[in-house]
Design goal:
3 copies of one chain form a homotrimer. The radius of gyration of chain A is 17 Å and the shape is globular. In chain A, helix 1 runs antiparallel to helix 2, helix 1 packs parallel to helix 6 and helix 2 runs antiparallel to helix 6. The longest helix of chain A has 25 residues. Chain A is mainly α. In chain A, 74% of the residues lie in helices and 0% in strands. Chain A has 8 helices and no strands. Chain A has one domain. At the A-B interface, helix 6 of A face helix 1, helix 2 and helix 4 of B.
Chain lengths: 204, 204, 204
C-alpha cells in the first residue's frame, strides 16, 4: 500500500503538471510562466495537505516529485506548443489528477488517524487545490465553481468510497482503486452528460 | 477562559459559514460550490493562525468545528435560497465573525507567549482571512479593501483592547468581551456612518 | 554569514514593503488597506518559506521584522502620497526585494540540508510570493506572469549561482553577494532591454 501510494503520488504530479501547462499555454505565457503554473498545479494540493497535517512537505523530503513535475512541464511545453488541441481535452488529465490526489490525500490522513470526516475533506482538498491554483493563476473561474458539474463532490464520493470499503474490511489496495474509479466516473459522467446539482436560486 | 475560547471559536465558525453561503449564493453556485465557499470562510482564518503558530490545525484535531461548519452551510443554503434578503444584511454576521475570530486569534497567540504586536496582528489575520478567501473565491473586492471603511483596523482595535486590558490586570474573560465589543462597534459604526480613513491620494 | 542573512532579511522586508505601498497606493486604498498590502508583500515570501521548511515563522519568532515592515509602510505612505512618481519606478525596489529574498530563501534551505534543486526552488518561491500576493491583492497581473520578461528565471539564476559557487568552495558571503548581483542584473537587463523568453505559441 505504501508503495502504491508513492506511485499514485508520482502519477498525480505528472498528470496535474500536464493540465497546468495546457491551461497556461492558452494564455500565451512564456516558458517560465508556464513552468510556474505547471509546478503549482502539480505540487499545490499535496503541499496544502502536508502543511495541514503537519507532516514534512512531500516534494521537499523527496526530490523525485520535483524532478517529475519539472520534466513533465518542460516536455509537454515543447511537445504541445505546435499542436492545436481541442480545449476540453484537458478535462481528462484534470479528472485523473483529481482522482489520484483525492485518494492519496484521504489515505495519508487516515494513516495519521484522522477521523473519517476530516480524512475525506483532506482528500477533497488535496484533489482540488492544485486545479484552483492553476485556474486562479490563469485568471479563469476554477472548475470547482462551474455550477452544477460535479467536481468537489466527485472527489468526496471517491474519498467516502475508500473509507467505507476499508471499514467493511476490503483490502486497502482494492479500496484505493475503487475510490479512484468512483471519482473518475462521477467526474466524467458529469462532464459528458452535464449533470446538474441543485443551485441556490432556481432558474425560472 | 479555555472554555470561553472554545465556544467563541464554534460561534465564529458558524457565523462565518453563514456569510460564505450568502455571498456564494448570490453567484448562482450549486450546493457543493456554496459549501466549499462556506467552509473556506469558516475555517480559513483559524487555519492560517494555526499554521503560522505551528500548532495543530483546530478543525483537524477536533472534528466538532467541521461538523458545525458543514451543518450550518447546508442548513443556511436550504433556508435562505427561497428568501430575498437585502444585500447588505450579510455585513452583520460578517462583523460578528470578524470580532470573534480576532479575539480568539489574539488570545491564542498570547497563550503561546507571542509578543503583543505579533499577537495583535495574528488576531487581525485570523479575523480577516476567512472573509478575504470568501470574496476572492466569489470574485469580489475583499471587504478589507473597500477604501475608508474600518475593517482590519476595527479588528486591530479590538485586539489591542484585549491586550491592553489584560496588561492592566482585568480578568481575561472581561477583556475578551470588551475586545469583541470594540471590534463590533468600530466596524458597524464604520458601515453605518461611512467613516473614512485617510487615503493615499486626496480626492479633490 | 548568519549575521549577513539577518541583515539581508531586514533589508528585503523593508524594500518589499515599499513596493507594496507604491502599488496599493495607486489603487486609492486607505491607510489600513495600504498597510495590509505592504505587510503582505514584505512578509509573504518568507512566511511561505518557513511554513514549507517547517521552521518557526521568522516574523513571529523575532518581532523586529514586523516593526521594520510596519514602520516602512507607514513612513512611505505619508512621504509618497504627495509625490507623482513614474509608474515603472517601483520595478527597482521590486528587483532588489526579489534578489534579497531569493538568496536568503536558498541559503536557509541549504542550511537545513535541502538538496540543491529543492533549495533553489525555495529561493525562487521566497523571492516571488510577496510580489504575487501584492499584485493579486491589487488586482493586477503578477509581474511573474508578464510574458517574456525574466522574473522567476532571474531569481533562479541567482539561486543557482549561490549554490554553484559554494560547491566550488567560494566563501558563503561572496557567493551570496554574487547571487544577488546575478538576480538584479538579469532582472534589470530584462526590464530595460525587454528580453523575451520563448512563449508557448509563436506570435506570427
Amino acid at each position: 500500500m505504501e508503495n502504491l501510494l508513492y506511485w499514485i503520488g508520482l502519477a498525480a504530479v505528472a498528470v496535474s503538471a500536464v493540465t497546468g501547462v495546457l491551461d497556461a499555454g492558452r494564455k500565451r505565457m512564456d516558458l517560465v510562466g508556464v513552468a510556474m503554473v505547471g509546478m503549482a498545479t502539480a505540487l499545490g494540493g499535496g503541499t496544502v495537505r502536508d502543511v495541514l497535517l503537519d507532516r514534512p512537505v512531500f516534494w521537499i523530503s523527496n526530490q523525485t516529485y520535483l524532478l517529475v513535475a519539472f520534466a513533465t512541464t518542460v516536455l509537454v511545453f515543447f511537445v504541445v506548443r505546435g499542436l492545436k488541441l481541442p480545449q476540453r481535452l484537458f478535462l481528462i488529465p484534470d479528472a485523473i489528477g483529481l482522482a489520484l490526489f483525492a485518494i492519496t490525500g484521504t489515505q495519508i490522513a487516515l494513516d495519521l488517524n484522522a477521523p473519517w470526516l476530516v480524512a475525506s475533506l483532506l482528500g477533497v482538498t488535496t484533489g482540488v487545490v492544485g486545479g484552483v491554483l492553476r485556474d486562479v493563476l490563469c485568471n479563469e473561474v476554477p472548475l470547482i465553481f462551474v455550477p452544477g458539474e460535479p467536481y468537489a463532490s466527485a472527489a468526496w464520493g471517491g474519498a467516502l468510497t475508500l473509507i467505507g470499503l476499508q471499514a467493511l474490511g476490503v483490502s486497502p489496495v482494492i479500496a484505493a482503486w475503487s475510490g479512484m474509479a468512483v471519482v473518475l466516473t462521477l467526474r466524467l459522467i458529469g462532464v459528458v452528460f452535464a449533470i446538474r446539482l441543485p443551485t441556490y436560486s432556481e432558474r425560472k
